[in-house]
């Protein structure tokens, strides 16, 4: 049973029927159409030979199908992970060298091991450390870097660099060498792709085409551009005029590979592999969950780690590079009617067939057209709206997001991610360091107690009721000490303080220590500390270490009102 | 006015009278008696010449008196900070070299600048990142390292090392060279000090001495040991028999110094200076606050930063080394009746007089006796009880504390502190990552809603009420997504979910994003998401970004009961 849980394919295979088969086959065919140009393009973005993209779209899909928990997630090369691969591998070897390809295999292998490890330890929640604003900033900035880097092939220039500044500088220094025929091809491809993306859908729908079908046709736009450009190169001999093409792509099935085991190199690549894994996982699980809930299916994030881990291990054994679930691709798979992960297996078979039969055609495919498909795809990921909204909603989140954007654009994707996560954690801690603490009084005629600053309430001259709106832990326990000691020096006549713990979900050892210290300190000043509305689990825990014995004359009351009436009968009225 | 706030001496000086003068002078005299042997001993612990300890007990006390906010804190050299100084300086230069002394000056200067900087930025709460269990583990482990390192002088052996393992190894390898006369002096001193500490107090009290006076006599124990041992050396010529003494201590006032400005060295020492500052600040502010509250006086932690910063800057300008508020010494100052920081100024004057007049006496003071005073002082800091109690109360805190102990004993104090802080933060985040989420139902006959797992409650077949007991932020927003999507797949018949936010004190941008995503996802599954009991400030914030417009058919209810009745009239009964 335990083994079966790790092997979800066992569940859906048992119920597999003719209906599922037809749906899955159709979805696989459509996804394949979309995936072929994407595989080639993203491999080039990663600085790898185009066939590596195809290899990464065969066995990894089978790996995910066997172990993943989503029925419709479509796995393979994606833009951001390709850029991260280029950045990590570029630091070790030169693009085009055998070492570079070998580093990509190691990255896939390490990423696979890391994901499987997290999955077995059920540590999927580690990914939560990437906050939405940081991811959003990261994706936007990466998309800009990717789009800029793809301007090189569109302009017929050599380009490269780890960040936007470097990419733009290199392009600018080369601008005199723009190759006009290439620019014409690339420019036309961009125009065609944008027209398909923004105009073709409404047009088809007006002509009575079913919206779902129209959307699928729009998604297949890159195939149209690829086919048209191959035809144009063949007809007009554009390659002879210097328009760069993908060139000879070796046909045949993926090779069996094994990442080189070089402990020092693995250690050096580990941070990049961890970042690639986490970014890939976060994006993937979010798509998978969005699609699953539409059919009231369940995604198990820890099972997803195993699925994506298996996919990456498969990539490292078959000449691929890091993969994850693709956003647009999974939506196409879902909308085309995929019922089970078998659709992924069929996609893998179709890509394998394409690798065997279609590679001669790619010889004439202009690199500028692949670059154009990337530019049009990633430009849709730029999301300035979220940045503006974050600014309006939460300045701390904005700082984390903006730091990520600036560092990705100006330094490197790794620095951006790490800084974003570090800043979010620091600002979160900073915020909980100074929780909201209110002195409360009784709303006349009720047993409710509200903040004395916001409401007209009755207070006692001798008993101070203080409510704290946060769990008590090390980073705010000293603040609580400061607040309460300040409160009793500001109110010299009080003899009792009631600490209302209705919003305290936990008290850690530091806070416990602080509370005991407060009991003693207040006793030194002839003030007794009482508690009210302590939650059950919190009280159980305090009882375990005999906290109530430290309270001296202090008591624990069920409600604030009970406490106030017991300590100052005048409050009963 | 602003300047005056930064200069608290202005407040108490205005009200200074004859009564305060008498009290402060008496307290200063008693503290001086205690401080002279401590200054010499801690300087030797820090690896510095003994007179540096005296210098660090003169002008730094005046610096604190002018800028600190505590009326009774006694500043000067302390054990843990001395050990940290030895550890940091030992990494740069050899003990006894002029470079070593110069590094100590730089550490004091850097520490002073850092503390003043934090104070001006009002960032005192940064110190909260040191949790109680980490501090407690750190102090216990440091005390063991200090005590072990002082066995060297007591045994007449050369000793040293950055951690307990190294210290013990070095002692063990030297054990054949134990100097018996030194051991006799050191052993007698330890026995005398322990007798004074544990037996003399009760004895005096039985003889009718006032408890406060008896306590002060006990605290002056080290002076007795120092005087007796100087007399013994003089009488029996023990120095001629090879008992090591402090030797010639130059008399005269502290020299004016300026820390060498070497940017590279400063950068290298910065992490150590930061740790020294934070540890010193945390210990000092906790003593200051405990004493202040007894007289209902106030401590301003940011003002304390300025006071301690001034003290350290003063140390760096007058041949000292890092200082902070001492625990035992401040209690003596308080109990001896110190009324204002003028007591600190008088102590400084008396120490200066001692530096002028008494230094010839120290020539005969055995190092073993100073080491004995340190051993007896720090052994009281070893606190295994807290470690055991932390284990019983909170395993996460125990892990942080134990890691600190193990690393301090086995590696270095810096590693222990950094690991302790890192682990506490990681475990805190981990804990808030999986908040308590409960499905609740109505307690029959009331309008209260409680956890369905713990109480016999009424639930609706169509409306699910879910309460989340934590603020929503990036590290748990994905968990919330998982919980709610799982809840609706587990309950296929429900049409509405009510999210009860009574314990949600804040919602950050990630959680906002998650909530909007949940609204859409649940809508895809024909389920409407509603909210109940959202706190006022949280709602204000959500309103600012038009959150309610994203709710679709969802509504925000004031109370859970209101929501349940509105969505399922059958719940009204």
Short description:
Two copies of one chain form a homodimer. The first copy, chain A, is mostly helical and 573 residues long. Chain A is built from 25 helices and eight strands.
Word description of this protein:
- The structure is a homodimer of 573-residue chains.
- By secondary structure, chain A is mainly α.
- Chain A is 63% helix and 5% strand.
- Chain A has helices at residues 2-5, 9-14, 18-45, 50-55, 59-67, 79-90, 98-120, 132-155, 164-173, 180-206, 211-219, 221-236, 263-294, 301-317, 327-335, 342-357, 359-362, 367-379, 384-393, 395-410, 413-433, 474-490, 509-524, 536-544, 560-567, and strands at 75-76, 324-325, 437-442, 449-451, 463-468, 496-500, 528-532, 556-557.
- A 6-stranded mixed sheet of chain A has the order 4-3-5-6-7-8. A two-stranded antiparallel sheet of chain A has the order 1-2.
- In chain A, β3 and β4 (449-451) form a beta hairpin.
- In chain A, α3 runs antiparallel to α15 (327-335), α10 runs antiparallel to α11 (211-219) and α22 (474-490) runs parallel beside α23 (509-524).
- The radius of gyration of chain A is 30 Å and the shape is elongated.
- The relative contact order of chain A is 0.14.
- The model of chain A has no long low-confidence stretch (mean pLDDT 89).
- At the A-B interface, α8, α13, α19, α20 and α21 of A face α8, α13, α19, α20 and α21 of B.
């Amino acid at each position: 049973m335990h083994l079966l849980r790790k092997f979800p394919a066992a569940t859906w295979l048992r119920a597999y029927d003719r209906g599922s088969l037809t749906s899955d086959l159709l979805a696989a065919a459509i996804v394949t159409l979309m995936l072929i140009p994407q595989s080639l393009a993203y491999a080039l973005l990663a600085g790898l030979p185009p066939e590596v993209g195809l290899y990464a779209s065969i066995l990894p899909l089978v790996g995910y199908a066997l172990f993943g928990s989503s029925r419709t997630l479509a796995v393979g090369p994606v833009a951001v992970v390709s850029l991260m691969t280029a950045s990590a591998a570029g630091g070790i070897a030169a693009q085009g060298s055998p070492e570079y390809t070998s580093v990509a295999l190691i990255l896939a292998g390490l990423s696979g091991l890391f994901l499987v490890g997290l999955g077995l330890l059920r540590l999927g929640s580690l990914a939560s450390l990437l906050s939405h604003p940081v991811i959003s900033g990261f994706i936007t900035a990466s998309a800009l870097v990717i789009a800029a880097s793809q301007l090189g092939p569109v302009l017929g220039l050599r380009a490269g660099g780890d960040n936007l500044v470097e990419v733009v500088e290199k392009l600018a220094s080369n601008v005199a060498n723009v190759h006009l025929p290439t620019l014409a091809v690339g420019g036309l491809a961009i125009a065609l792709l944008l027209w398909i993306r923004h105009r073709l859908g409404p047009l088809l729908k007006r002509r009575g085409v079913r919206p779902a079908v129209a959307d699928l046709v729009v998604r297949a736009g890159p195939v149209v551009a690829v086919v048209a450009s191959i035809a144009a190169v063949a007809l007009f001999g554009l390659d002879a005029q210097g328009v760069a093409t993908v060139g000879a792509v070796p046909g045949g099935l993926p090779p069996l590979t094994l990442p080189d085991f070089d402990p020092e190199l693995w250690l050096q690549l580990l941070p990049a592999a961890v970042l690639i894994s986490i970014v890939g996982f976060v994006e993937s699980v979010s798509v998978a969950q969005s699609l699953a809930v539409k059919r009231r299916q369940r995604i198990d994030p820890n099972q997803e780690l195993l699925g994506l881990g298996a996919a990456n291990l498969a990539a490292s054994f078959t000449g691929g590079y890091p993969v994850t679930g693709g956003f647009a691709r999974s939506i196409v798979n879902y909308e085309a009617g995929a019922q089970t992960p078998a659709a992924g297996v069929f996609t893998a078979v179709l890509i394998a067939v394409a690798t065997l039969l279609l590679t001669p055609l790619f010889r004439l495919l202009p690199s500028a057209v692949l670059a154009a498909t990337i530019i049009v795809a990633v430009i849709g990921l730029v999301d300035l709206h979220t940045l503006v909204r974050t600014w309006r909603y939460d300045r701390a989140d904005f700082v984390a997001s903006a730091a990520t954007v600036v560092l990705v654009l100006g330094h490197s994707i790794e620095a951006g991610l790490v800084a974003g996560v570090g800043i979010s954690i620091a600002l979160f801690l900073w915020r909980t360091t100074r929780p909201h603490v209110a002195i409360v009084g009784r709303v006349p005629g009720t047993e409710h107690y509200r903040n004395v600053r916001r409401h007209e309430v009755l207070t006692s001259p001798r008993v101070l009721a203080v409510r704290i709106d946060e769990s008590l832990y090390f980073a705010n326990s000293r603040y609580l000490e400061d607040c309460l000691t300040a409160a009793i020096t500001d109110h010299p006549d009080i003899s009792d303080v009631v600490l209302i713990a209705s919003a305290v979900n936990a008290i850690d050892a530091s806070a416990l220590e602080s509370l005991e210290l407060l009991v003693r300190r207040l006793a030194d000043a002839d003030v007794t500390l009482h508690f009210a509305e302590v939650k059950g689990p919190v009280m159980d825990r305090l009882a375990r270490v005999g906290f109530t014995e430290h309270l001296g004359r202090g008591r624990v009351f069920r409600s604030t009102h009970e406490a106030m009436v017991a300590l100052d009968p005048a409050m009963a009225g």
